[in-house]
Amino acid sequence: MDESTERMPLRLWVSAVLGCPVDRVQSWVDTFNKERLCEDDIIGTSVQAYLQAANSEREEALYQPFCAMANRVLEWARDHVPGLPTYPIPDLLFVRNDPVVVDNGREEGDNRDADCKPDIVLISQTTCNDLENRPKYQQAPPRKRHKTTGVDWCDIFSLLELKPFPTSRRAAYLVGLIAAWSSKVRGEEPLPAPSLVASGSRPQRPTPSSLQSPGVPLLSEPGTNSNRLKRKPEPFVTEGANQSRKRPRAKRNYLPEIYESDYFLSEKCSVAKEFEDHMARYALEMLSCTRGTRLFFFQCLVVGDIVEFWYCDASGFVRSYQISWVREFDKFAAILVAIACCDYAHFGLDIPNLSPPAPDLNPSIPPMSLTGYSTTMRHPTLDIDVKVTLGSEVFTQYSLVGRHTCVYDVTTEPPNDEDETYEERCQRHIVFKKYKPIESVISSSNMDHVFNQLLDCLHELRYEVNMLHRDISLSNLMYEMRGTVVWLILNDFDLATRLDEHGRPLGATGSHRMGTLPFMSVDLIKHPEMLHLLRHDLESAFFVALWCGIRLPSGQKIDAARRDVLLSWEQHGLNAILKAKAQIFANSDSFFQLVPGEIPISPEFCQYEMWFDGFWKVFFDGYQKLADHHRRLAVIQRDLRVKRINENQAEGLIKAANSKFNFETLNDAVTYTKIKAALESCKPDLATYVPGFVSEM
Questions:
Q1: How many CB atoms lie within 10 A of CB 198?
Q2: What's the pTM value of the predicted model, to 2 decimals?
């Protein structure tokens, strides 16, 4: 998150993401203030209900008032704002979703983030009316249908995550917030935001009289002057002026700096990171589970009255600075209208170079997949146009950053009925055959053969093609049968890079680590800024082999010990995964000390323990040499601290030590040749372990 997230002023976010000019948004802000949008009965009642709910610990009580307020803003603007363009998607609604789990379209048993329940979703009324007719809703037991609407990630245009204020000092803050809204409704200058950091006494809980019920005027102060000057709205175009200075990334401030509050920066408050995790999870699901229909996605995080907007695509996140939607209601309402004015392109649904199956598709119903979409391509030899139509989905890359590759079957049609020189074909992609996942064929009879092919492939890529794959994972290994022999196919070069003559990537490179976390090199997890090297791909190949040795063969029940090891690589946090994987190369003199405790090998592959030991020993020796190098550098740093040497001497010694150490091979410990030799010397005698087996190699 920290490595792929940038912040920007809200006015720039709205202009860049929503495609709405700043001056237009400002005109809406002026209209809302002039026409007293805040005095609308539905909006006033909804805001009061929201603020009452914010004083409780029931998060779900926030959803309905917020939806009512947001929907009323869109309706009011459509009827009262002069010159407002017609909403491209006319029946958009903010709808409560929680506790409904959004359908991710994956097969049963695939539990990757299967419990995503966004609080509020932006979908069309047409979709809402259709949900009860979907098979998932019809097949659900009646008592569970309130949690099973059949809503799919493809149905959602955007979403909001709502969280109440943490308990600490919430009461004092809400008193000031209610007073600010009351002043706004009366058209008075708002009261200053309360300080939540210098309070010497414990704040008092608001009394029932200070939290009026809907329909009753909000808190009014005795003795206040009703003839105060009318509040002048803060112009939208100057938003962010007080927030333009660079903020330390370690701080997660969920209140604008102008409020001078560290309400969410308290060490006792750990919810901010949880909010960010939720937003990242929703982005992962939206970009990976929409079957290639979504190029990017934006969402909104609301913490009490503080709002920030997120834009997510294959490169990472862009987050806006925060505003208070209560104190700056007109500005927030204008942004809601800007969202409603978005067309398919600004919701990330405009797929370039592809034509929909029917030109008159209902804009209120987003496409559920690209099946039926088509394009025209020029045949390379016949020099004729060929129509290519996408069929069923084959594969979608599941990752937070990367190109989110989505692969479809395609059919091609001849240009006319009389031309018999062009034959209709069915392919996985325009240029590739349809391959099968390697995990479906790996067994004790061919594992060494498969991974020898993988090592050959990685070596030839690096030294013959000058390329690194940088994402060696089980899902990127496919196969085809050539006679009776399994032939490995290395797939998905989304993160691959070309190298120059010095082994450095050509062109722009990302600042974050590359790869799939369960199979990523320990060194890359620990040092994400490190340059990706061939040894990192070779280490990923080792972890893929180890994963196969623990998990496979497919279809067989896996015991608890093996399942727990795999889960520690797949579903835990980054630090936990690093700890679990680093232990494999630490405090052990032999791979056999890890079996079966830390590495419970499947009974199918017990004859491969010597083979795994040889594979493991190469990387173990390499990390030992790397640790020795780090110890030498630590000695230099110690001598500098105790002033045995000066800074120039230390810099020279460190530079000399680094120049003598080969980071590409860890001083010749991790090389293609050494791995191949180690595996050949430890090749399992399959005929001994598998009765009746005759090798085909």
A1: 6
A2: 0.59
